[in-house]
Design goal:
By secondary structure, the chain is α/β, with parallel strands linked by helices. The protein is 51% helix and 9% strand. It contains 26 helices and 10 strands. The protein has a 6-stranded mixed sheet. It has a two-stranded antiparallel sheet with strand order 7-8. α2 packs parallel to α5. The N terminus and C terminus are likely disordered.
């Protein structure tokens, strides 16, 4: 980015990093700010950004981020009070840059340079909540800040080591240390004035932002709140500190995966998560392309407030703010808090948690869900709105994903769901979510969304679908394992033992990968023989693509036991459930443990090694008993329990 002309006001200007070295600065991170929390990716992104800029041929400036500060006094370790700068925003990059400079000063300077750039010239940083924080030798076990400092130092060292022969060190060093260098890395320096004067707009923040670690909409909005003089007045520092504290609490809430994946399907960077809150507040349209949509609305409010102070009517307040009766930043902040509290209340409520979580999982946005619920309440009349009404309205929203040619499906439609239908995944997810809700357990949306999921046949199809040699060989070993168990059971020994021996004889031949010798035909024939052996005889499943023979299984587990007979799949499910290393939806776990089979009347419950029609029926019956009330929401007279 080319150099830009700025106001001569020294309280708002570009400040080269080199100036922070040639002139000694001391920065204080107040206690209400979060500690140092950058992870490996963020540190590497910053290094890569500076590196990319440093290697460019043209004269230019690279802007890190707004560094919002206010003058303060600080008592050093000798008890001397010194002039310092309290950091209101920008501490993460400021801290990381100090670590980078420390590495350059120790390992990147030539002997002559070391006489000029001594380590004591690097700006100081003091975290008021951890004044003894050791930047030179952080001990991860001491505290969380030291842990992240140690991680960052290690990342910086490895990154520079990987670039030891490409001249990157010198390029970066020049644009960071040399005040007269044609290329400069700079902060946007903003000093919160103690006077009643303030800049009219911070839109320049967005214009100057560049690189992989771009300013998010929420970061820009935060800067607006921080610089609003109604909040940061000299007489109201307590409220300003509370704003920063509340912001950090909200930000931590969005960093919690359990909360985040309840309201989002997005696996993007942790840095952008809180943007969702402001998209909700500003009612950002789902398909809007402007990533700074929310920021621009807050900027409008900020500019409107400044114009009103000047008695200038040229700035018109956006309709959104008028609708909510908001005409100042303080009121906007209160509305942000209220909206965040609403999302937390949803998260903590069993009904909202499961139904909002499900609706988001199948593609709905939290704002749309809220608006539809509010519209239903507004159209409701005759009596007070109850929790039962909320539940029924949720059922209607859920059924929006079960429409065929504009018509809602009903409970009777479930029996016709087959493998390949778009409704199967939605139904199985709903079954698992609703089962968790009814049992008072919380469905783990975070674990669910971090995995890739398949629709798995409980009892394998009759055809040998595996093609790759490695996959087939794994299948043979899986079959050999379960046949080895059955060959020791008295009731199955006579038939299992010969098949086990045949499998053990065939595996070495297939391992040899003897193509062109008829080995593939032998595999296919053997596969059919095995699946027939593991079928339930007269009770075998008639249509294995039907919903009563389908379940959700994570991709890794499904990959390991694809085409395997039911008893081996069951073995894998039990093994993984015991280990607790993979998320297992409650419905998937229960179906392989035959929880839905009738233990009093069906022999299939006793025969844990086969999946038969009675098991199929019991599973389908449980699905109906769990979700029929939702599927029949548009038929209030339907109260019967499913029976087969």
């Amino acid at each position: 980015m080319s150099n830009t002309q700025y106001t001569s006001n020294s309280n708002f200007c570009p400040k080269p990093v080199a100036e922070l070295i040639t002139t000694k600065y001391h920065f204080v991170i107040p206690s209400y700010q979060r500690g140092y929390r950058w992870e490996e990716k963020q540190v590497i992104d910053l290094l890569e950004d500076i590196c990319e800029f440093a290697k460019q041929d043209k004269e230019d400036s690279y802007y890190l981020q707004p560094l919002v500060v206010k003058p303060c006094k600080w008592t050093d370790t000798d008890g001397v009070q010194i002039d310092a700068w309290e950091v209101l925003d920008g501490q993460q990059r400021l801290t990381t840059l100090r670590l980078i400079l420390m590495f350059i000063f120790e390992y990147g300077l030539m002997p002559l340079e070391k006489k000029i750039f001594t380590p004591d010239k690097i700006y100081n940083l003091t975290y008021t909540n951890r004044p003894q924080l050791d930047f030179e030798n952080p001990k991860p076990q001491d505290n969380i800040d030291s842990y992240y400092l140690a991680v960052a130092k290690n990342v910086i060292e490895k990154w520079f080591t990987n670039h030891i022969y490409d001249g990157v060190m010198n390029s970066i060093k020049d644009c960071l240390l040399l005040p007269n260098n044609s290329k400069q890395v700079k902060f946007i320096w903003y000093v919160v004035s103690e006077e009643k004067q303030a800049i009219e707009s911070i839109q320049v923040f967005n214009r100057l932002n560049k690189g992989k670690i771009s300013l998010t909409s929420s970061e820009l909005i935060k800067a607006l709140f921080i610089m609003d003089r109604n909040i940061l007045s000299n007489n109201d520092r307590v409220e300003a500190d509370k704003l920063a504290l509340d912001w950090n609490i909200m930000e931590r809430q969005f960093q919690d995966d359990k909360f985040w994946y309840f309201i989002s399907n997005n696996n993007d960077s942790h840095q952008t998560r809180i943007d969702v809150l402001f998209d909700f507040v500003t009612e950002k349209p789902t398909d809007h392309a402007d990533k700074d949509y929310s920021y621009r609305l807050f900027q409008n409010l900020y500019d409107y407030c400044r114009a009103q102070e000047r008695k200038d009517d040229s700035v018109e307040l956006k309709q959104l703010w008028k609708k909510h009766g908001i005409d100042n930043m303080r009121a906007a902040w209160e509305y942000v808090i209220k909206t965040n509290d609403r999302l937390i209340a949803w998260y903590e409520n069993n009904l909202y948690y499961h139904y909002v979580g499900y609706l988001v999982s199948v593609g709905n946005q939290p704002l749309d869900i809220y608006n539809k619920l509010e519209n239903a309440k507004q159209q409701f009349s005759g009596r007070e709105w109850t929790n039962d009404d909320t539940e029924k309205e949720f059922h209607k929203l859920i059924m929006d994903s079960f429409k065929d040619k504009g018509n809602y499906l009903n409970a009777a439609s479930i029996d016709g769901f087959e493998y390949g239908s778009k409704y199967v995944f939605r139904l199985l997810l709903l079954f698992n979510v609703e089962t968790s809700r009814q049992k008072g357990q919380r469905f783990a949306f975070d674990s669910f969304k971090k995995e890739k999921w398949d629709i798995e046949h409980i009892d394998s199809q009759n055809n040998a679908s595996l093609v790759e040699h490695e996959d087939r060989l794994r299948w043979l070993n899986n079959v050999a394992y379960i046949l080895g168990i059955e060959s020791k059971l008295n009731e199955r020994k006579a038939t299992a033992k010969p098949l086990y021996n045949k499998c053990m004889d065939f595996i070495p031949k297939y391992e040899a990968n003897l193509r062109g010798t008829g080995i593939d035909k032998q595999y296919t024939d053997f596969c059919k023989e095995v699946l027939e052996y593991f079928s339930a005889g007269d009770g075998a499943i008639k249509n294995k693509d039907s919903i009563g023979n389908l379940t959700l299984l994570d991709y890794k587990t499904n990959r390991e036991d694809q085409d395997a007979p039911f008893p081996y799949k069951r073995h894998c499910i039990i093994r993984e459930d015991k280990a607790g290393k993979r998320f297992m939806p409650i419905g998937t776990r229960n179906v392989f443990l035959k929880y839905y089979s009738n233990s009093n009347t069906e022999s299939s419950f006793i025969d844990a090694m086969r999946w038969s029609m009675p098991d199929f029926d019991g599973y389908l019956r449980e699905i109906h008993n769990t979700v029929d009330v939702i599927f029949n929401v548009f038929n209030s007279n339907s109260t019967e329990t499913y029976e087969r």
